[in-house]
């Protein structure tokens, strides 16, 4: 079973981002938090995102104001495959997360409490991607999927009724002169508001040109249709590559405590696609004819009034030094609960494999274009340890050291080295400014030696490398023995 992990008191240095008490500036979750799904349960909001190849996966976030979010649990600890586009919901006394496993189908996990523990995954045995759960006025439970399809669920919501998969909606026709990746209708999000069921869909392709992705709206008075497209579609869209936020889409409707409505969706930041798709929040209004409009239009880069005025502002990165695995830190493709431990500000990580790729690097989401992070490393003689900006097993950059040399890693391979005299103890630092990473090492954590190697990483994004990944900073340890990481520091620049 998967669940929450209690924090261990650690020391860390994090430069905290400040925001006004009454306004916020997007993103609400900076960095790679794509395909957001959000639900409200009384005064509490819960959200989760695509996990892709990282474990523990399907982190559940909690908020009471839609702006400040804290991770509280995670749903997966075993690698099933790449995890896409979940849907978190509550039905009866149970919480559900429906999700897609690439090339394997759709699954569901459940919990009595969103803090966990979550059940083992159950295979729904239905094709399609991006599942969305909804129950109609008769109590019939449905799962809606990409391509305008739906199927009936059994009363427990844990399997699909055989023979009920059908296409019920064809989407909104994108104008022929728009530049997109094609129709690619996905990410259905349905909600009953008043007399209408509203169906939000993402179209145009998730990445590609800045103007590709968009969110369209349809409605019907019956869950069975017919579905009428909004006359003011699309609800959100990037119209020009000069805008700050590209490929906006995959939106969900959510109501604030005061009754106003908002949408939560994802987008890439112009010039920094390697950060991944970030989570944004935007107000919407209902027009007199019942259709939905996003009044901010295409400019969501300016400060906006918070859904809850005067609410506290938190910084999710302030807990990095607590090494909360599954909440702040994740592993690539394989999670071993006994491999990492933290005590008194020191993370002990068991080395494994013979390369950084095989080591299962331990990573976090920085969520900002310009930053630096550093750490003191003490290792056993047969271990190699380092820092990385990791996209996938084939494409990452970083720096490592063994007993004699500091080594640069570029495009997933060792590319140059210099001698050091630190033996098994060294401080390492990576600084990232405008997509260029600089490497440093030190013998005391104060006097830093800059390496001559600069690493340009703007191309480490889906449009060039595919996989819908992002560059994630973190640690790795391969070889044999234990590696201790201490004096961790993270600063936004």
Would you give an account of this structure?
The protein is mainly beta and 493 residues long. It has 2 domains: 23-305, 5 Propeller (Tachylectin-2, Chain A); 320-492, Jelly Rolls. It is built from 1 helix and 39 strands. The strands form 8 sheets. Strands 1, 27, 28, 30, 35, 36, 37 and 39 form an 8-stranded mixed beta sheet that branches. The two termini are 39 Å apart.
Features:
single chain, 493 residues, mainly beta, Tachylectin-2, Chain A, Jelly Rolls, 8-stranded mixed sheet, 8-stranded antiparallel sheet
Topology summary:
Blueprint: E1 13-14, E2 23-24, E3 37-41, E4 44-48, E5 54-55, E6 57-63, E7 70-76, E8 83-91, E9 94-101, E10 105-111, E11 122-123, E12 132-135, E13 141-145, E14 149-152, E15 166-167, E16 186-193, E17 196-203, E18 214-220, E19 228-229, E20 236-237, E21 245-255, E22 261-269, E23 278-286, E24 292-293, E25 304-305, E26 330-332, E27 340-343, E28 346-350, E29 362-363, E30 371-379, E31 383-390, E32 396-401, E33 405-410, E34 413-419, E35 425-433, E36 436-442, E37 448-456, H1 462-465, E38 472-479, E39 482-492
Parallel strand pairs: 1-39
Antiparallel strand pairs: 2-25, 3-4, 4-6, 5-26, 6-7, 8-9, 9-10, 10-11, 12-13, 13-14, 14-15, 16-17, 17-18, 18-19, 18-20, 21-22, 22-23, 23-24, 26-29, 27-28, 28-39, 29-38, 30-35, 30-39, 31-32, 31-38, 32-33, 33-34, 35-36, 36-37
